[in-house]
Amino acid sequence: MDLLIDVCIAIDVCSGRSPHAQCSAMALQHCLNAGGQLWLYAGSMQTLEYTLYRELKRLFAAEASAPPNIFILQRSRELLQAFAADKHWLAALAGEGDVWDAEDLEEEQLIRALDRFKPGTIQILTRDNLLLQKCKNAVHPEDYLTENQNTKSIDFIDLMTQQGLIRAGLENAIHRVIHHGQYIMGPEIKQLEEKLCEFVGSRHCITCASGTDALLMALMALDIGPGDEVVTVPYTWISTAEVIALLKARPVFVDVQPDTFNMDPDLIEAAITPKTRAIMPVGIYGQCADMTRINIIAQNYNLPVIEDGAQCFGAIHHGRFSCKLSLIGCTSFFPSKPLGCYGDGGAIFTDDDALADKLCQIRIHGQKVKHQHPVVGINGRLDTLQAAILLEKLSIFHNECNLRRQVAGRYDALLAGTAGIRTPIIADGNQSVFAQYTILADNRDEITNVLQASNIPGVAYYTRCLHLQEAFADLGYKAGDFPVAEQVATRCLSLPMSPYVSEVEQEMVAQEIKKGVVSSTL
User: Fold this and answer.
1) Which of 426, 434, 452 is nearest to 509 (CA)?
2) Total domain count for the chain?
3) pLDDT at position 62, please?
4) What is the pTM for the complete model shown?
5) Quick one: DSSP state of residue 258?
6) Taking the C-alpha atoms of 163, 167, 173 and 179 in order, what is their torsion angle to the nearest 10 degrees?
7) For residues 495 and 97, which has the higher predicted lDDT (pLDDT)?
């Protein structure tokens, strides 16, 4: 539970005001210890300065020689600057300014600001009796300390901590877009594409509306259509095969490797026929497929490779980043991805100038210049607002990738030697970005039940492989055709993963998993 700090609480702590300072400070520290975040309302800045100045002046007045007012003002600012150093600033939005009918304007602003947060995730910490009576989400420091908030529920994917770290930049970025008003193909689109090219090392980046559109556009750019075949895997999200089917082409599945769950290069050649037009490997759970071997096979058969890097953007394969590993690389910016926006988004990467030009046309209804459509395309543009958000997130992405690997390393150590549990195996030459931390569990259902009983989320992805989905029944596959994928589907379990999962939270997860293992053997 986060806390939005009322002015009176800040003044308590900054001035050491008796008898409230200790209780207020303890409440703030308790919030941090429980994994919460502390917020200051930007609209209260002048009130904070003025109120602290008055309180310090009152305290200094009791001394034999009071310092000059300019000293007191400077001291107020120094104390507030130190107090705000570990706090997050909550911007004052326009809708919180129209409070002229309220009895207390600033009080009403605070209450309205809570609407921006998910219900049950934040409270106003205050000693103001009127505010306490008026707002059900306001709490007195003494009451807060008596509440049972010793633990924080664990998020499967923690987006709020990240948002708090870069909130000021996010709000500035969004406001820039609102001010210039170019919501479609605004300047942030080009800026993002340039930054993404720089990150990946690719010649071209074409942003688009989703990871699914990225795959679809890549196939369209290669003129894949009815009667063509594309080799891919049955253990992935449906988009990978769905886009092939949408173009009336045929997904041809090959099984995955038992260690990485990615496409098994040893099985590719047997799946290639005269109708094969492309190979589409997937970087599942944040680790690139064996793109080196896949590219060699593809080159021998003169086939293009489209990397589905929706889950592995930021991952490294033999020194090169995902989406720079084949003719075309595609990724997704869905909110839960390692680099995610606040809606749908995607991108396509290529070093081929002609393909890039065609992809740009496909993205805007096949249009090369206005009202001229050399090819059939789609409405596949990325929103400018999403591009602005991604630019801010990209600024911390390198660090977050490293933090994800640290989190995964701690999970590895905590779960090492646990009976019936296999932690992720990262292939030689790979660095995973751990979009998910996915274990194999012999008794997945029992472990999941134990986790849920402790309010710890665990998710089993892709429990029904694509070749067994009704949507692909006409392909003629049956149970047992891809035994590795089918076995993984019965045992996989993804644990809470983000750059900001704490060691304490991971220890709790590991402890409950081990309880689940024990209970399943009794």
Assistant:
1) 452
2) 3
3) 66
4) 0.80
5) T
6) 120
7) 495
